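To fix ideas, we close by showing one paired sequence and structure record:
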Amino acid sequence: MVRVGIIGASGYGGGELIRLLKAHPGVELVGFSSRKHEGKPLSAAWPQLWDEGRFGTLEEVLEQAEVIFLALPNGLAMELAPKALEEGKRVIDLSGDFRLPPEVYESWYGIPHKSPELYREAVYGLPELHRGELGGARLVANPGCYVTATTLALAPLAAEGALRGAFAVGLSGVSGAGREGEGTFFAEVNENLKPYKVGGVHRHIPEMERNLGRLLAQGRPVRTHGPIGEVRLSFVPHLVPMTRGILVTVEAVVEGNWDQKALDELYRDFYAQEPFVRITDALPETKGTYASNRVDVKPLYEARTGRVMVFAALDNLVKGMAGQAVQNLNLMLGLPEETALPKEGLWP
């Protein structure tokens, strides 16, 4: 049994991690911390979870655990990760702190990077592309929901060398915005649909472009710190009045001659061995992946215009966050990749 702990366990990602890890047969959840709920029972933040434990201190979690999940706002993991690594811990970071080169991170996140030397060690935690790097990793940068959905929607085209750019529209449930913030109040999101951070300013854009650029330059599998080709992507996110779920609709700019048969063959071959990616006949929908670690993907050739479109749906709190982190944990520890991760969604 590997001892694991969660720092930042009162946010949505932390709560979902607790739910998944409590059912994991290969790990022992030895501690979870929250500055807001320190000393309080777990039910103070998560009444749906049955556990007699209490939120501990950051120091207690660091002392007891062998693997640390950092489920913290951007800017905090870069301060805690060095200490954890120095003490011999392995770290899975759910924030954006180690996903991008420090200079790129600073320009898009507006935060000075305090541990730039660790970026070169961090492995990018998208298992479908980086599985081979994760086994020996000490520090994993766990990607988020929009990036995971968009990257997996376009990865086969990029690896084929056909992708030149894309226009992506993303729709997210409110939990994707985190547990705090006036923009997510019920009165503002109920019966409302709104775009946000448009015009090429969303900070996940460079991460998507780098993921696809790696595939364009390296094929598959890719290396986190390997060469990167150029892919330009426009991204328009929307906030949807539902609790959880991500749906992306992407129009791909491609080279070559394509039709529906060729697209289906490319995507089914590319994801044939992937336990959590399903190529669907019908168009994906968020309810189909609710509470699962699965991504549903559908490529579509629009014969009337000759356009290539791809649709992808996932649960932003599972495959888009905590489930992906557990998937990375399994690969880091040499455990079966699917351990403790649901493939089936909940309906209704």
User: Anything to note?
Assistant: Residues 145-316 form a domain with the Dihydrodipicolinate Reductase; domain 2 fold (CATH 3.30.360.10). The chain has a mean pLDDT of 96. The chain is about 30% helix and 20% strand.
